[in-house]
Write a structure and sequence with these properties.
about 170 residues, alpha+beta, Phosphorylase Kinase, domain 1, 5-stranded antiparallel β-sheet, nucleotide-binding, Protein_kinase_ATP_BS, Ser-Thr/Tyr_kinase_cat_dom
Length: about 170
């Protein structure tokens, strides 16, 4: 065997090892990123049912109290109860967007009510999605008030994938 043939074989093996390494690193990175973006199962359970125990390092009177509350399911909307006008973007930020939409509103009589629909993006980190869940909880317990943006409903069926919406 000539030296050129040996170097060609060595270079081919190194190239294959490099490609395999890149594929493995890419797959691991995607798995870790997906975990970072998903709301964890215990956070979802805590949202719907409330927390049994609050960590000792939680601030009393703020997040700790919110975590104790169970989600007020009276505000839950079915997917057929709302329409989002995706071409009517009202605003957006780092973790979500607000669109014009309509909900079927039996509470306010028959017909539809025009609302602002706050959404999180699937690419938002889980901390942003969990923050929106806290916001939904707080607004659902505050009730109606002239000086606060009122909540008319929420769609939370897609929480794990970042598809919660507030109306």
């Amino acid at each position: 065997m000539s030296a050129t043939t040996i170097w060609t074989i060595v270079a081919s093996i190194l190239l294959i090892l490099l490609l395999v390494t890149l594929v493995v690193v890419s797959v691991v990175f995607r798995i870790l990123l997906r975990r970072k973006l998903q709301v964890q199962r215990n956070d979802i359970t805590e949202f719907y049912e409330g927390a049994d125990e609050i960590p000792k390092d939680a601030c009393v009177g703020t997040t700790a109290d919110i975590r104790k509350l169970a989600y007020n399911k009276n505000y839950e909307l079915a997917k057929s109860d709302f329409k989002i006008e995706k071409d009517a973007l009202l605003g957006s930020g780092t973790f979500g967007s607000v669109y014009r939409g309509r909900i079927n509103c039996l509470l306010y009589g028959s017909g539809e009510l025009e609302v602002a629909v706050k959404t999180t993006m699937p690419s938002s980190p889980s901390t942003a999605k969990t923050g929106m869940l806290y916001e939904i909880k707080v607004l659902s317990y505050l009730g109606r008030h002239d000086n606060i943006v009122n909540i008319h409903g929420a769609y939370t069926k897609g929480i794990k994938n970042g598809m919660e919406r507030t109306f």
